[in-house]
Design goal:
Length: about 475
């Protein structure tokens, strides 16, 4: 029988040392025909970021040799620091910010020029043409006290300097090639807007490493375009919040595929985010948030049917969904599961966990399961949170006594608490405390109006 004891006095196997012990961070998976790649941030290795290669049949192996740290400083937040073409890896090295080419089991070779001032020119978010000859990517130059962002192309063998293919905007992101490499899509925006305020979607014809016939197809000061991409048959797709919610659209018009009060996009603090990816049969694997709940589903664009995948994950944040053929790879987590790289094959229906960020040797019965809640806020509005009740099978509180409640606020505008394992939260819930993690006005996941509640009211609405 459970022991009756005052809340906050329960003994727990989740120790402070366990909370303070760092694991690795796993992020930015990439699928190649013969393997899956991902990045690991390793605190125990001086915070180095390493590309790892793995598959369901063997142990993961490091690709990045000692002396290299795979990380870009474009926009300072980085992301999109590497890409894979066949068995060749291209990556940005943190120390000098040059792009490197690395053949499997070979030493990395720089393919961008060395700069007079170290790390003054930086690269991110690249894509290689199908023939393997060219990379299109974002470049950021720090020169003469100014910072200039551009879209550039460069030969993958480093035989020539990068060439500017678009310029004039303050920021660029998501250069994405059509399957036949005939068209490039990308987004651009200007200060003082952030990418979740308003961006523009541009297309241009690809002529070798050059672009011709630039044209604006969507977006503006009050429309946030996120993640342009191409279906296997060459149809443009993108996420837009023109309806007040980040929904998925097809083509250059108003062909909305997900007319729902749900978010199929996220604030682009970093490069490399991906909320959707195409399967070979034309269906779309996608993550979305609705009513405070995270989902991973499959969308049939011909019928509009959106099916949830029955997987033990409730958080996909940041979103990294990649697909190749019938295989989907993502980073998922749950209330009792730390972040992990997961591969799902729709042909064999197999699910493989390729890497877990942190091994947690605790009985899952100790973990409090979060409940998404809504509560009234100022001005007749509604706000959202996750409530974690006390949970410890060895104890129960005195009859009629409410447990103490810890209220926590996330760190900044457009942030979001997600229902994933937090040993810090479980440290308290397993000792008899309740915890509520508040997604105050301004948080992501609840539509544009909710996200904009904080505008001009930072330090007011959130408090």
């Amino acid at each position: 029988m459970a022991e009756v004891a005052p809340s906050g006095t329960w003994r727990s196997p989740i120790t402070a040392a366990m909370v303070a012990t760092a694991g690795v961070s796993v992020y930015e998976p990439w699928i190649a025909p013969d393997a899956v790649y991902w990045l690991e941030l390793r605190p125990a290795d001086e915070g180095r970021n390493v590309i790892v290669r793995g598959d369901p049949y063997g142990s993961p192996a490091d690709i990045t040799p000692q002396g290299f740290d795979v990380r870009t400083r474009v926009h300072e937040y980085g992301g999109g620091s590497y890409l894979v073409h066949d068995a060749t890896v291209f990556f940005s090295n943190f120390e000098d910010q040059r792009l490197y080419r690395q053949e499997l089991a070979a030493a990395p070779v720089p393919i961008t020029p060395e700069t007079a001032e170290r790390a003054a020119i930086r690269y991110a978010d690249g894509r290689v043409t199908p023939d393997g000859r060219w990379i299109f990517c974002v470049r950021e130059r720090h020169e003469a006290g100014a910072v200039v962002n551009e879209l550039v192309s460069l030969p993958t063998d480093g035989s020539a300097d990068p060439v500017v293919v678009d310029h004039g905007a303050d920021f660029f992101a998501f250069p994405r090639l059509s399957p036949d490499a005939a068209t490039l899509a990308w987004i651009r925006w200007d200060q003082p807007r952030m990418p979740w305020d308003g961006t523009e979607l541009w297309l241009a014809d690809v002529d070798g490493g050059e672009l011709r016939r630039h044209r604006l197809v969507a977006g503006g000061p009050r429309e946030s375009i996120f993640q342009p991409g191409w279906s296997p048959d060459g149809v443009l797709h993108f996420v837009s919040d023109r309806t007040g919610w980040w929904n998925l659209f097809r083509g250059e018009g108003d062909d909305g595929l997900t007319p729902r009060e749900a978010e199929f996009g996220v604030p682009m603090w970093e490069f490399g985010y991906s909320t959707y990816a195409f399967l070979s049969d034309g269906r779309i694997a996608c993550t979305f948030r609705a009513g405070g709940v995270h989902h991973l589903g499959v969308l049939d664009p011909t019928t509009g049917e959106l099916l949830d995948l029955d997987l033990p994950y409730s958080s996909f944040d940041p979103p990294y969904v990649r697909a190749l053929g019938t295989q989907v790879v993502f980073v998922g987590a749950g209330p009792a599961a730390p972040s992990q790289v997961v591969s799902v094959d729709f042909a064999s229906r197999s699910v493989d966990v390729l890497r877990v960020s942190k091994e947690v040797d605790v009985d899952p019965a100790m973990f409090s399961m979060p409940e998404p809640i809504e509560f009234p806020s100022e001005g007749g509005r509604t706000a959202f949170a996750y409530f974690y009740p006390p949970a410890n099978p060895a104890y129960e509180g005195p009859h009629g006594e409410r447990p103490p409640l810890i209220v926590e606020s996330h760190g900044g505008p457009t942030g979001e608490f997600t229902p994933e394992l937090s040993l810090e939260t479980q440290f308290f819930t397993s000792r008899g405390f309740g915890v509520v993690s508040v997604n105050y006005g301004g948080s992501s996941g609840f539509g544009r109006d909710y996200r904009e509640r904080l505008y001009g009211q930072w330090g007011v609405v959130d408090l």
